[in-house]
# Entry
Amino acid sequence: MLVCIGEEIEMVRRKNVRNRETDYSRNIRIAAIMALVLVTAGFLFVRMPEARPYEPRTSSETITIPLPDKLLETKEPPKPRVRPKLPIADPKGKETDPGVGKHEFNELTRSPSDLPSLEPVPFWKVEVKPAAVYLETQRYPDMARMAGIEGTVVVKVLVDTTGAVA
# Structure
Protein backbone atom coordinates (compact mmCIF):
# COMPACT_ATOMS: atom_id res chain seq x y z
CA MET A 1 0.00 0.00 0.00
CA LEU A 2 1.28 3.43 -0.82
CA VAL A 3 0.99 6.20 1.75
CA CYS A 4 1.59 9.79 0.75
CA ILE A 5 2.92 12.10 3.49
CA GLY A 6 3.75 15.45 2.07
CA GLU A 7 6.06 14.87 -0.83
CA GLU A 8 7.45 11.60 0.42
CA ILE A 9 5.90 8.36 -0.67
CA GLU A 10 6.38 5.45 1.63
CA MET A 11 5.65 1.81 1.03
CA VAL A 12 3.79 0.33 3.98
CA ARG A 13 3.26 -3.41 4.29
CA ARG A 14 -0.02 -4.73 5.53
CA LYS A 15 0.26 -7.22 8.29
CA ASN A 16 -3.16 -8.92 7.82
CA VAL A 17 -2.78 -10.15 4.25
CA ARG A 18 -4.70 -13.41 3.92
CA ASN A 19 -4.09 -16.27 1.62
CA ARG A 20 -7.23 -17.28 -0.26
CA GLU A 21 -6.30 -20.95 -0.40
CA THR A 22 -5.96 -21.30 3.38
CA ASP A 23 -9.03 -19.11 3.98
CA TYR A 24 -11.16 -21.32 1.73
CA SER A 25 -10.33 -24.53 3.57
CA ARG A 26 -10.84 -22.81 6.94
CA ASN A 27 -14.23 -21.42 5.84
CA ILE A 28 -15.37 -24.84 4.61
CA ARG A 29 -14.46 -26.42 7.96
CA ILE A 30 -16.30 -23.68 9.89
CA ALA A 31 -19.41 -24.06 7.67
CA ALA A 32 -19.42 -27.85 8.14
CA ILE A 33 -19.14 -27.52 11.93
CA MET A 34 -21.95 -24.92 12.01
CA ALA A 35 -24.21 -27.15 9.89
CA LEU A 36 -23.52 -30.11 12.19
CA VAL A 37 -24.30 -28.01 15.29
CA LEU A 38 -27.57 -26.73 13.74
CA VAL A 39 -28.76 -30.22 12.80
CA THR A 40 -27.89 -31.57 16.25
CA ALA A 41 -29.70 -28.67 17.95
CA GLY A 42 -32.72 -29.28 15.76
CA PHE A 43 -32.91 -32.90 16.89
CA LEU A 44 -32.37 -31.99 20.56
CA PHE A 45 -34.88 -29.17 20.91
CA VAL A 46 -37.73 -30.36 18.68
CA ARG A 47 -40.27 -32.44 20.58
CA MET A 48 -41.22 -35.78 19.13
CA PRO A 49 -44.97 -36.46 18.94
CA GLU A 50 -46.31 -39.09 21.28
CA ALA A 51 -47.35 -42.34 19.66
CA ARG A 52 -50.84 -43.48 20.62
CA PRO A 53 -52.63 -46.61 19.49
CA TYR A 54 -55.27 -46.16 16.79
CA GLU A 55 -58.78 -45.78 18.16
CA PRO A 56 -61.62 -46.20 15.66
CA ARG A 57 -64.25 -43.44 15.72
CA THR A 58 -67.21 -45.80 15.62
CA SER A 59 -67.91 -48.93 17.54
CA SER A 60 -67.74 -52.19 15.67
CA GLU A 61 -71.08 -53.90 15.26
CA THR A 62 -71.93 -57.06 13.43
CA ILE A 63 -74.34 -56.40 10.59
CA THR A 64 -76.22 -59.34 9.11
CA ILE A 65 -77.52 -59.11 5.58
CA PRO A 66 -80.19 -61.69 4.69
CA LEU A 67 -79.50 -63.75 1.58
CA PRO A 68 -82.11 -63.69 -1.18
CA ASP A 69 -84.36 -66.73 -1.45
CA LYS A 70 -83.48 -67.33 -5.07
CA LEU A 71 -79.78 -67.55 -5.85
CA LEU A 72 -78.40 -66.05 -9.00
CA GLU A 73 -78.46 -68.36 -11.98
CA THR A 74 -75.08 -69.06 -13.46
CA LYS A 75 -74.55 -69.78 -17.12
CA GLU A 76 -73.54 -73.24 -18.14
CA PRO A 77 -69.95 -73.57 -19.25
CA PRO A 78 -69.55 -73.60 -23.04
CA LYS A 79 -69.39 -76.96 -24.73
CA PRO A 80 -65.91 -78.03 -25.78
CA ARG A 81 -65.17 -77.52 -29.45
CA VAL A 82 -65.25 -80.55 -31.64
CA ARG A 83 -62.06 -80.68 -33.61
CA PRO A 84 -62.28 -81.88 -37.20
CA LYS A 85 -61.01 -85.39 -37.71
CA LEU A 86 -57.99 -86.00 -39.84
CA PRO A 87 -58.73 -87.80 -43.10
CA ILE A 88 -57.62 -91.41 -43.11
CA ALA A 89 -56.63 -93.12 -46.34
CA ASP A 90 -58.92 -95.94 -47.37
CA PRO A 91 -57.06 -99.25 -47.24
CA LYS A 92 -58.84 -100.42 -50.44
CA GLY A 93 -57.68 -97.31 -52.34
CA LYS A 94 -61.20 -96.13 -53.07
CA GLU A 95 -61.78 -92.36 -53.39
CA THR A 96 -64.21 -91.15 -50.75
CA ASP A 97 -64.33 -87.42 -51.56
CA PRO A 98 -65.88 -86.68 -54.95
CA GLY A 99 -64.37 -83.16 -54.90
CA VAL A 100 -60.84 -84.48 -55.19
CA GLY A 101 -59.71 -85.35 -58.67
CA LYS A 102 -59.21 -83.78 -62.08
CA HIS A 103 -61.07 -80.59 -62.80
CA GLU A 104 -61.39 -78.81 -66.08
CA PHE A 105 -61.51 -75.05 -66.09
CA ASN A 106 -63.03 -73.37 -69.11
CA GLU A 107 -62.60 -69.88 -67.71
CA LEU A 108 -59.47 -68.99 -69.70
CA THR A 109 -60.41 -67.14 -72.86
CA ARG A 110 -56.93 -66.52 -74.26
CA SER A 111 -53.94 -68.74 -74.12
CA PRO A 112 -50.51 -67.30 -73.33
CA SER A 113 -49.45 -68.02 -76.91
CA ASP A 114 -52.02 -65.47 -78.18
CA LEU A 115 -50.29 -62.59 -76.37
CA PRO A 116 -48.19 -60.27 -78.54
CA SER A 117 -44.52 -61.03 -78.21
CA LEU A 118 -42.05 -58.20 -77.75
CA GLU A 119 -38.88 -58.27 -79.73
CA PRO A 120 -35.72 -57.72 -77.75
CA VAL A 121 -34.42 -54.18 -78.02
CA PRO A 122 -30.88 -54.02 -79.34
CA PHE A 123 -28.32 -52.39 -77.06
CA TRP A 124 -26.23 -49.52 -78.36
CA LYS A 125 -23.86 -47.01 -76.82
CA VAL A 126 -24.84 -43.37 -76.77
CA GLU A 127 -22.56 -40.39 -76.32
CA VAL A 128 -25.29 -37.96 -75.28
CA LYS A 129 -27.01 -39.04 -72.10
CA PRO A 130 -30.78 -38.65 -71.88
CA ALA A 131 -32.02 -35.36 -70.46
CA ALA A 132 -35.34 -34.27 -69.04
CA VAL A 133 -37.71 -32.79 -71.61
CA TYR A 134 -39.49 -30.62 -69.05
CA LEU A 135 -37.98 -29.83 -65.67
CA GLU A 136 -39.82 -27.56 -63.27
CA THR A 137 -38.05 -26.08 -60.27
CA GLN A 138 -39.87 -27.37 -57.23
CA ARG A 139 -40.40 -25.09 -54.24
CA TYR A 140 -40.25 -26.77 -50.83
CA PRO A 141 -43.49 -26.15 -48.86
CA ASP A 142 -43.11 -23.42 -46.22
CA MET A 143 -44.95 -25.37 -43.51
CA ALA A 144 -42.72 -28.41 -43.98
CA ARG A 145 -39.59 -26.25 -43.94
CA MET A 146 -40.67 -24.46 -40.74
CA ALA A 147 -41.60 -27.76 -39.06
CA GLY A 148 -38.26 -29.30 -40.04
CA ILE A 149 -39.86 -32.15 -41.98
CA GLU A 150 -37.47 -33.92 -44.32
CA GLY A 151 -37.84 -37.03 -46.37
CA THR A 152 -37.08 -38.97 -49.51
CA VAL A 153 -39.39 -39.26 -52.49
CA VAL A 154 -39.35 -42.41 -54.60
CA VAL A 155 -40.95 -42.21 -58.01
CA LYS A 156 -41.73 -45.30 -60.08
CA VAL A 157 -42.19 -44.69 -63.78
CA LEU A 158 -43.29 -47.08 -66.51
CA VAL A 159 -41.49 -46.45 -69.78
CA ASP A 160 -42.72 -48.13 -72.97
CA THR A 161 -40.62 -49.35 -75.89
CA THR A 162 -40.66 -45.96 -77.61
CA GLY A 163 -39.26 -44.22 -74.53
CA ALA A 164 -42.44 -42.40 -73.58
CA VAL A 165 -43.59 -42.38 -69.99
CA ALA A 166 -46.84 -44.30 -69.75
Summary: The first strand starts at residue 2 and ends at 5. The two ends are 95 Å apart (CA to CA). The CA atoms of residues 140 and 153 lie 13 Å apart.
